[in-house]
Design brief:
11 helices; transmembrane helix; ThrE_Dicarb/AminoAcid_Exp; 3-stranded antiparallel beta sheet; mainly alpha; elongated; single chain
Length: 256
């Protein structure tokens, strides 16, 4: 057993899971499972939202690695694929090189292309308009507002802009567009449009994982994820609030 290679590959699998939005316990369990499957007798892992630590014992020597996590997103398909691969090592009788190769294949898989992602994000925003009691006019406005903020969000992610500013600027765009849309028709409801649009920005997975981590006893990770979700909520509130305040002062408080 090549302990250095094994620990490096297990940390890489953990990185893929954590960057895709997996829960802390899932990442820790998967890395330990990989180490045990390839012959390590004693393996330990510790995961936070921003870092991974893995160690194992081999022939009386301790091997450890630390991996820093810079970016996190949501890719449930990748989580599912890596999770299944980690749990099928012995069943498929994979060698460590074959396992590493399949991990890199999963990492290289492309997600939905840009137009598809933007369209379905916009469709989701439009659907939320009906959920919140809006009409077809509200849904159409939410559709185009959702499309715009998704484009802005993706572009800022590509330029590696901090998520706080990403959410804040996207929220600014959502509020501005919703205010513009309601000027064209009195049948539109400003509240429905803006709420439907910013649902695309709400950190639902972060909140869910925060609760699951806390319940599972991972208090450090749980509180860190909860704080992350809280800061995103603040960014959304600040973004929409600034634009709304400027609009009210500029337009004299007139909303149609």
């Amino acid at each position: 057993m090549d302990a250095n290679k094994l620990i490096s590959i297990s940390a890489y699998a953990g990185r893929l899971l954590l960057e895709s939005g997996a829960e802390t316990y899932r990442v820790e369990e998967s890395m330990v499972r990989i180490c045990h499957a390839f012959g390590a007798k004693d393996a330990q892992s510790f995961v936070t939202p921003t870092g991974i630590m893995v160690s194992l014992m081999d022939e009386g020597q301790n091997f450890a690695t630390v991996s820093r996590i810079q970016n996190r997103g949501v890719d449930l398909n990748r989580i599912d694929l890596v999770n299944d691969l980690c749990r099928s090592i012995q069943q498929k009788q994979l060698t460590i090189d074959e396992f590493d190769e399949q991990l890199h294949e999963i990492a290289a898989m492309k997600r939905y292309n840009f137009p598809t992602t933007v369209f379905f994000a916009a469709l989701g925003a439009g659907g939320f308009a009906f959920f919140f009691g809006g009409n077809w006019y509200d849904a159409a406005a939410a559709f185009f507002t959702g499309m715009a903020i998704k484009v802005i969000s993706i572009l800022m992610e590509r330029f590696e802009i901090n998520s706080f500013f990403n959410m804040g600027i996207s929220a600014c765009a959502a509020e501005l567009l919703s205010l513009i849309f309601i000027q064209f028709s009195s049948d539109m409801n400003h509240s429905v449009i803006i709420i439907s649009s910013i649902m695309l920005l709400v950190p639902g997975l972060a909140i869910t994982n925060a609760v699951r981590d806390i319940v599972a006893g991972d208090y450090l990770s749980g509180m860190a994820r909860a704080m992350e979700a809280f800061l995103v909520a603040i960014a959304i509130a600040i973004g929409t609030g600034i634009v709304y305040s400027i609009w009210i002062k500029t337009m004299g408080g007139m909303l149609l």
